[in-house]
Amino acid sequence: MFDFAGLGSVADVPRFQARANPGLSAQIFEGRTTTYAEFDRNTNRVAQGLLLLGLEPGARVGYLGKNSDLFFELLFGAAKARCVMVGVNWRLALPEMQYILNDSGCEVLVVGTDHYDLVRDLRAACTGLKAVLGLDGAPEFPLFGDWRDSQVERDPLLQAPADDDVIQLYTSGTTGHPKGVQISNANYLSLWQVSQDAGWADFAIGDVSLVCMPVFHIAGTNMGVLTLAQGGTSIIMREVDPGLILEFVPKYRINHLFAVPAVILFMLQHPRSAATDFSSLKRLSYGASPIAEDLLRKAKALFGCPFVQLYGLTETTGGGAYLPDEAHDPARGKLRACGIPYPGIEIRIVDGAGTSLPPREVGEIVIKSGVIMKGYWNNAEATAKAIIDGWFYTGDAGYFDEDGYLYIHDRVKDMIVSGGENIYPAEVENAVFGHPAVADVAVIGVPDEKWGEAVKVIVVLKPGVSATGEEIMAFARSRIAGYKVPKSVDFASVLPRNPSGKILRRELREPYWLGRERRVN
Question: What CATH number has the domain bearing residue 457?
Answer without folding.
Answer: 3.30.300.30
